[in-house]
Design brief:
About 25% of the residues lie in helices and about 35% in strands. The chain is an alpha+beta fold and about 200 residues long.
């Protein structure tokens, strides 16, 4: 079996993607599952190639002002623009507002306020969507970066890295001093659930 890349196949896939982007196609649920299953098989094959892999954590880089963070990918669904964010009156400061996500109303939290950082966003931001259909939650951040991997053993403890409530959401600190957060802990926090009165 040759390790040479299938350039013709790659060109066909790129042409199909370019065409879909130009048409504005969106993948359906079945097609999304198929693509994710194919990616999982490829990733599993890479792991079995011989290197003894230490446990790694994948996370999405993002920032709030000049502070860098990472959000563990488990439970993360997608990243959205904040252009359709609807602000609400008379809500706690950590509530940024609501968005309509394909017919579902989703609460969006201002992560800057939730973690105890002062100030306002410097312009348009992004919304990181967490959860499943039964419980969706958006996190409003300033900027989103790349997905990175980190060997779990290299995560440093998070001694007093975040003020107030933010400490409960922390996993630790990455080598580049990014603060690593766990979206599942944020989703599970009953203190941030708004109840209609």
């Amino acid at each position: 079996m040759s390790d040479a890349p299938d350039w013709a196949g790659m060109r066909r896939r790129l042409a199909a993607m370019r065409s879909a982007i130009e048409r504005g196609d969106k993948m359906g649920a079945a097609e999304t599952r198929k693509v994710l299953a194919q990616r999982a098989r490829l990733l599993a094959r890479e792991e079995m190639r011989g290197e003894t892999a230490e446990a790694t954590i994948e996370f999405l880089e993002f920032s709030l002002g000049s502070s860098r963070f990472g959000l563990v990918l488990d439970g993360m669904r997608e990243v959205l623009s904040d252009k359709d964010l609807l602000a609400l009156p008379n809500v706690p400061a950590f509530v940024a507002g609501l968005i309509n996500l394909r017919g579902h109303v989703v609460s969006v939290l201002d992560l800057r306020a939730l973690l105890g950082f002062g100030g306002k966003a410097e312009g348009p931001g992004k919304i990181i969507l967490l959860g499943q259909e039964e419980r969706l939650l958006g996190l409003h951040v300033d900027r989103v970066g790349a997905v990175r991997s980190l060997v779990a053993g290299r995560i440093q403890s998070s001694v007093a890295a975040l003020p107030g409530r933010g400490e409960a959401y922390m996993i630790g600190v990455a080598e580049d001093r990014s603060l690593l957060l766990d979206g599942a802990r944020i989703l599970a926090d009953e203190k941030i659930v708004l109840k209609a009165e």
